[in-house]
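Collaborator request, handled under Task 6.
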Amino acid sequence: MSEYDRWETRYSAPGYAFGQEPNYFLAACKHLLPKGGRALAVADGEGRNGVWLAQQGLDVVSLDFSPSAQAKAAMLARERSVTMTIERGDVHNWDYPEAAFDVVCEIFAQFSTPLERAGKWVGMKKALKQNGLLILIGYTPKQLQYGTGGPKEIEKLYTRALLEEAFGGFRDLKVAEEELDMHEGASHAGLSAVIHLTGRKR
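C-alpha cells returned to the collaborator:
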C-alpha cells in the first residue's frame, strides 16, 4: 500500500484519527505566536492544528495530500467559525514559496524517508520569513518500545542530533525530549516518547 493510500484509508474512517483539538505542544506555544500574519501547517491532515492556528488570528494554509482528511478539515473549520486555505499537495514536492510565512509547524509528520525529510525541511525553512517561528514535534526512537503511535521504522523517528543538525542555524533554538501520557484521538493514545523544537529563522 502506498503512503497516500495508507493515509487516505485512515482518514476515510469515521471520526477524527487524532481528535479535533490541537496538539498539546502546539497549544503550549501560543505565547510565541505573532498577533497576525501567515502560518503554514505541514501535513495538517484533518485540520485540528490548522484550525487552532486560525483561531489565534493567523491566515493559515493547511497542506495535506489526503482528500478525505481535507474534507474533515473544511468541516472542522466551519464548525469553529474560522477560514483557512486548504491546499492539496505532497509535502515532499510542494512548491514552498520563499519567505511567505510567519509560522511554519510540523506536527507528527513522520512518514518521510530520510531523503524526503531532508527535502521537506529545506522547503519549510525556505517558506519561513526572517524571524519566522518554526514549531515541530515528533516521536523519538524510544517510541518503538511504547507502540502508541508513529512509524515503526527507526529511520523515520527524530533525535536531538538530527534536529540540531537540520535547524542549528536558527536562533532561540529550543529542543527538548519528554515522555508523557498523550491522548490525541485514537491514533495517539498512551505513554509516548516525543521530541519538540521551536526556533526562529535568522
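The cover message to the collaborator said: "DSSP finds seven helices and seven strands in the chain. The two ends are 40 Å apart (CA to CA). Please let us know whether this matches your experimental observations."
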